[in-house]
Write a structure and sequence with these properties.
By secondary structure, the chain is mainly beta. The protein has one domain: 7 Propeller (Methylamine Dehydrogenase, Chain H), CATH 2.130.10. The chain is 6% helix and 42% strand. It has a five-stranded antiparallel beta sheet, with helices on one face. The chain has a four-stranded antiparallel beta sheet with strand order 3-4-5-6, with no helix packed on it. Strands 7-8-9-10 form a four-stranded antiparallel beta sheet, with no helix packed on it. A hairpin with a 2-residue loop joins strand 13 and strand 14. The longest helix has 17 residues. The chain is globular, with a radius of gyration of 20 Å. The two termini are 15 Å apart. The N terminus and C terminus are likely disordered.
């Protein structure tokens, strides 16, 4: 998959986005009805790929399209989230690993993080019919998921007597500060006291209409992206030393016309000035910390392929390797670059052959995450629509297939 630069018309972007959302919502309505805690089994191998087939159910509430799977690690456990709950297994992950449900059953989880040994869960908040909110949206566990402390004080919103907590989909931890995008839209909050209070950097303490804003923090520089009035945008701002106020408020960066392609994910490459922003149907790259962006992957948003990239990761043992993963219509999307994103190899077909069962080509699947443990082992979480399950792939980038 070489870089093809073709900025689509606004109508084309809208068709691509709507087509994806329709397929995405229809694919995960039927409950899986599977047994929790069964061990994984190694069922298929190819050059560079090993499928670890666990019995993790994956269903989706169509009212929460931001729910997804996530995989993080501490020194003892791997934690895996699906829209059906939070699971845990001891390290290392092997074909014999057993994932046990430890909490948040039938709750849409938006993301997981491990920071300084603590586990953080970002999830939906179920509104009360009346009275104060009780279902928290941002929580921390200091005992490997046994108990959780809520961190969303001040993020409660009540409308007509019904209350809920504003839910985030992303968090960044830096120098004792936590940044989250709770409430969607252009909302961006920061806390310096572990969630006892929150300061709005952008937006307000209200749930907004629209997609969640993607953001990345590089030192004291913040790169943000999303859509406003159906137009995609990328912005860059600079925080003051207290990280609670702006020295330079976010302003549009130099980038190709995104039209109505919102930014989906923004990630900076460690120890470099490179920043990558995934948008609908493409990927942009900056080599100056997010001031200027250009396309390195660009597809027409009319037809296929039109990837929605959900995750961008940088393997620790591949200094120039970048992996992007997500979904292209009803199919999983996985591609990697060996030269910092200048050229790409699409290995989505390999993934499809790995996860399909009994010749079923109606995958309605996606790759929700690509995650690396402390030992450098890389895992991809593939949603398999026909059985409403999450399958783990081990990506072996030192194999012939990925050189």
């Amino acid at each position: 998959m070489g870089p093809r630069i073709r900025v689509g018309q606004s109508l084309r972007a809208r068709l691509c986005e709507r087509g994806f959302k329709i397929l995405f919502l229809l694919a995960f309505i039927v409950p899986a009805g599977l047994v929790y805690g069964q061990p994984a089994r190694m069922t298929k191998t190819k050059q560079g790929l090993v499928r670890l087939s666990g019995q993790i159910p994956y269903t989706r509430d169509p009212d929460h399209p931001n729910a997804k799977a996530a995989l993080v690690f501490d020194t003892q456990y791997a934690y895996l989230a699906s829209p059906d709950g939070l699971y845990r297994t001891t390290l290392p992950i092997t074909p014999q690993s057993t994932f046990s449900l430890i909490g948040f059953q039938n709750r849409n989880i938006f993301n997981l993080y491990v920071h300084d040994g603590s586990l953080y869960v970002l999830k939906e908040s179920i509104a009360t019919d009346s009275g104060p909110a009780t279902d928290h949206s941002f929580l921390r566990s200091d005992d490997h998921g046994t108990t959780f402390v809520p961190l969303d004080n001040g993020l409660e919103e009540c409308i007509s007597g019904s209350c809920e907590y504003l839910a985030p989909t992303e968090a960044i931890f830096q120098n004792g500060m936590i940044f989250i995008n709770a409430g969607a839209g252009e909302n961006l909050f920061v806390t310096s006291d572990n969630g006892s209070s929150w300061t709005p950097l952008m937006g307000s303490f209200h749930r907004m209409i629209g997609d969640y804003e993607a953001f990345e923090l590089i030192g004291n520089r913040m790169v943000l992206g999303g859509d406003s009035l159906d137009d995609g945008y990328l912005k860059r701002g600079t925080l003051n030393a207290d990280m609670l106020t702006w020295d330079q408020p976010p302003a549009n960066v130099a980038a190709p016309d995104l039209q109505n392609r919102p930014a989906l994910v923004i990630k900076s490459k460690p120890n470099s000035s490179d920043v990558y922003a995934a948008i609908v149907g493409g990927l942009l790259k900056s080599t100056d910390g997010g001031q200027n962006f250009r396309y390195v992957v660009g597809y027409s948003v009319f037809g296929s392929p039109c990837p929605f990239i959900k995750d961008i990761m940088f393997p620790s043992h591949g200094s120039n390797v970048i992996v992007v993963a997500g979904r292209d219509a009803e199919n999983p999307f996985l591609a990697y670059s060996k030269d910092n994103g200048e050229t790409w190899l699409d290995i989505s077909a390999k993934v499809r052959s790995m996860v399909s069962e009994s010749g079923n080509n109606n995958l309605t699947s996606s790759i929700d995450f690509v995650s690396e443990d402390a030992g450098g082992n890389i895992f991809a979480g593939v949603v398999y629509g026909p059985t409403h399950t999450l399958k783990l792939l081990s990506l072996q980038f030192n194999s012939v297939a990925f050189r």
